[in-house]
Amino acid sequence: MRYKKIFSFIKKKLKYFVREKNYFLNKQYIPHYLSNINIENTSVCNLKCRFCAYEKRDLTNVPLNTMSLEFFKDVVNQCIDFGYKNIGLTPVTGDVFMDKRIIEKLDYLDELKNLDGFYFYTNFIPANKEKIDRLLEYKKLSHLGISIYGHDEETFKKFSKGTSNSYNILIKNLNFFYNLLKSKEFKFKLEIGHRTTKDFNIENSFNDLSQVLKNIKKLNNVLYDKNHSFNNWGGLINENDIEDLNVKFQKELIKKTGSCALIYSRLVIGANGLVNACACRDANFSLRIGSLKESKLSEIISYKNSKYKELIENQEKNIFHPVCEKCDFYKSIYEKTFPTWILKDKENKNISLKKFKKILS
After folding, report:
1. Is residue 63 within 8 Å of 40, Cβ to Cβ?
2. 29-361, CATH topology level
3. With the CA atoms of 282, 99, 193 and 116 taken in that order, what torsion angle do they form, in degrees rounded to the nearest 10?
4. What is the pLDDT along the chain (361 residues), one digit of tens a residue?
5. CA torsion sign, 348 to 350 to 356 to 358?
6. In sequence order, what are the beta bridge partners of 146?
7. Using alpha carbons only, what angle is made at residue 228 by residues 144 and 231, rounded to the nearest 5 degrees?
8. DSSP 353
9. In Å, how far are 39, 64, 95, 126, 351 from 271, measured between CA atoms?
10. CA separation for the pair 208, 217 (Å, rounded)
11. Measured on CA atoms in the order 337, 341, 345, 348, is the torsion positive or negative?
């Protein structure tokens, strides 16, 4: 354990040194901004996970909402016209299957000629057999993530504030999905994100949930990732929220060097039309740079947009919004990184800040 801490300390110091050196040399690695954009088809969730900012959203400024089908199509079309190639549907806080018209929206995405793919994470509980069955029919579904909270009924309820009925539906849906996956060909990558306690090892567990997860993770194209580390959602979550979950809470903030890669390549369009410069940990859309109810996307994601320009220039001077100051999810453009989980295994085309400004001016 001691050696791991020493190694981690050295690794952090080396990364910081590289960032500082590149900052001094004015050398950036901005993940290509047209690789992907997020569209929050709904901000409604069926769970109230204790480590999530869902219950701490400012509902006055960012009310729970679901995009109409017509508005969703308009937003998607503007994204395609802008040049985006992949669309993520994972809400900032919410679950895609809480949208009653989600299948119509996925159908629309799947037929778009100029879209490479779409992807999303879900807790899989609001889905049903018909919707799960349809997932295997989509040609452009590139990645599907399923979030699992806890490792049995007791810990599921403790982590997610869900009910026994929700837990049973999850197991039923997973078993149905497993039987589909082993009987039909599927091309999308499936990631099981298992968020549970430090001491849990799935290989030593034989309950219904563990058994179906072990069955699924044996299939091709499946990645199982068990994680017990949680971050602070830009300061909205604190240790008291998760104190009895037996997990790691990331208290240490990363010393920031220049602007965050997420404000270039992880933008999100909220269910209410707000365009926010961070799709990851800004539940209250504090970094909003415009609204599609008032302006076109091409006018918002532009260096001529004073709000976006000011955000970038401030971060380059190491002046950060309070939500960014407290965030432990920061990824500097002065080190090579990937903006989203779907690009982990792909070669990423980085661009300089100078080129980014030129393109968007």
Report:
1. no
2. TIM Barrel (3.20.20)
3. -90
4. 566 777 777 777 888 889 999 999 999 999 988 999 999 999 999 999 999 999 999 998 899 999 999 999 999 999 999 999 999 999 999 999 999 999 999 999 999 999 999 999 999 999 999 999 999 999 999 999 999 999 999 999 999 999 999 999 999 999 999 999 999 989 999 999 999 999 999 999 999 999 999 999 999 999 999 999 998 998 899 999 999 999 999 877 778 999 999 999 999 999 999 999 999 889 999 999 999 999 999 999 999 999 999 999 999 999 999 999 988 889 999 998 765 656 666 667 899 999 999 999 9
5. negative
6. 122, 192
7. 85
8. H
9. 7, 8, 12, 18, 30
10. 14
11. negative
Tokens of 268: 């999100």
Q: What is the spatial distance between Cα 352 and Cα 357, in angstroms, rounded to a whole number?
A: 9
Instruction: Give whole-number Cα distances, 193 to 118, 121, 123, 297, 341, in Å.
Output: 18, 9, 9, 32, 11
10 CB-near residues (< 8 Å, 6+ apart): none
The full set of domain ranges for the chain reads 29-361
Backbone dihedral region of 159: left (phi > 0), alpha (psi from -120 to 50 degrees) or beta?
alpha
Is residue 245 within 8 Å of residue 50, measured between CB atoms? yes
**Side chain identity at residue 282, one-letter code:** D
Kind and range of the H or E run holding 194: strand 189-195
Q: Residue 71, SS3?
A: helix
CA atoms within 13 A on the CB side of 304: 8
Residues making up the chain, counted from first to last:
361
Q: Are strands 117-122 and 141-149 parallel, antiparallel or unpaired?
A: parallel
List the structure tokens of 199. 């001491």
DSSP 26-56: T---EEPTTS-EEE-SB---S---TTSSGGG
